[in-house]
From TrEMBL:
Record field: catalytic activity: adenosine 5'-phosphosulfate + ATP = 3'-phosphoadenylyl sulfate + ADP + H(+)
Organism: Shewanella surugensis
Binding-site list for ATP: 46-53
Database matches in InterPro entries: APS, APS_kinase_dom, P-loop_NTPase
Protein name: Adenylyl-sulfate kinase
PANTHER family associated with the record: BIFUNCTIONAL 3'-PHOSPHOADENOSINE 5'-PHOSPHOSULFATE SYNTHASE, PAPS SYNTHETASE, ISOFORM D
Pathway recorded for this protein: Sulfur metabolism; hydrogen sulfide biosynthesis; sulfite from sulfate: step 2/3
NCBIfam families for the chain: apsK (TIGR00455), PRK03846.1 (NF003013)
């Protein structure tokens, strides 16, 4: 059985026989050497309204000021384009994260710091993305905001719709969110400023030697 329902096993077998990896002329190490920082995926996960997009963008701004090469991949945006064919069924969420995992790996290969902001509700999918990367290059950031706080914030009015039955399979209401067991970072946002939360992430990257103040 193919891991993804979107991958046809026959096509898969044919591909492995006929598609050969092309050796890049500029190596990963050479690309990294152009930057004053190491590449990594900063994988923000949490409920809708927990603060993933806000945090990813605030951290992006701080890293940009430190001359890091960064890019934010955001669920709302990616679902308009690359993943515009996917719904919020469990099966489509799995495929959503698989594709983003592959895309974020390409950013790491290009020597960049990529910040992803997807609910990514299932532990197995987050672990799959982790396994695509070197251990030090995948940083799971759990945006730990209780459901009642997310629901109070309700920045897009989606919880209200979900409670009224206008949206089905809404994460935290009638679709599961599996809390990370050992994230590299857990950020509690309730009652905290966006700036202080973003700084926690930057401090972690400094401590780990992924970035430095002299980038
Ligand atoms: N049913 C349902 N459940 C959860 N979220 C929903 C749903 N329908 C629409 N939305 C909006 O889609 C955003 C989540 O997309 P993601 O790609 O991050 O979801 S997932 O990782 O595939 O679970 C999510 O964005 P965030 O609020 O930024 O998390 C919502 O704005
Ligand atoms: N410390 C904080 N960190 C992140 N967001 C916060 C914080 N405090 C309040 N918020 C607010 O919470 C909301 C989070 O929305 P958003 O970033 O879109 O969440 P998500 O991307 O997880 O759906 C925003 O309105 C933001 O201003």
């Amino acid at each position: 059985m193919s891991k993804s329902p979107y991958i046809n096993r026959d096509v898969d077998n044919e591909k492995s026989a006929n598609v050969v990896w092309h050796q890049a002329s500029v190596s990963h190490e050479e690309r990294m050497g152009l930057n004053g920082h190491k590449p990594a995926v900063l994988w923000f996960t949490g409920l809708s309204g927990s603060g993933k997009s806000t945090m990813a963008n605030a951290v992006d701004r701080l890293l940009h000021q430190l001359a890091c090469h960064t890019y934010v991949l955001d669920g709302d945006n990616v679902r308009h384009g690359l993943n515009g064919d996917l719904s919020f069924s469990d099966r489509d969420r799995v495929e959503n994260i698989r594709r983003i995992g592959e895309v974020s790996k390409l950013f790491v290969d290009a020597g960049m710091l990529v910040l992803t902001a997807f609910i990514s509700p299932f532990r197995a999918d987050r672990e799959l993305v982790r396994s695509l990367n070197q251990a030090t290059q995948f940083i799971e950031v759990f945006i730990d905001t209780p459901l009642d706080v997310c629901e109070q914030r309700d920045p897009k009015g989606l919880y209200k719709k979900a409670r009224n039955g206008e949206i089905k399979q809404f994460t935290g209401i009638d679709s599961a969110y599996e809390v990370p067991v050992s994230p590299e970072l857990r950020v509690e946002t309730a009652g905290k400023s966006i700036e202080s939360c973003a700084q926690l992430v930057v401090d972690y990257l400094l401590e780990q030697g992924i970035i430095s103040r002299q980038n």
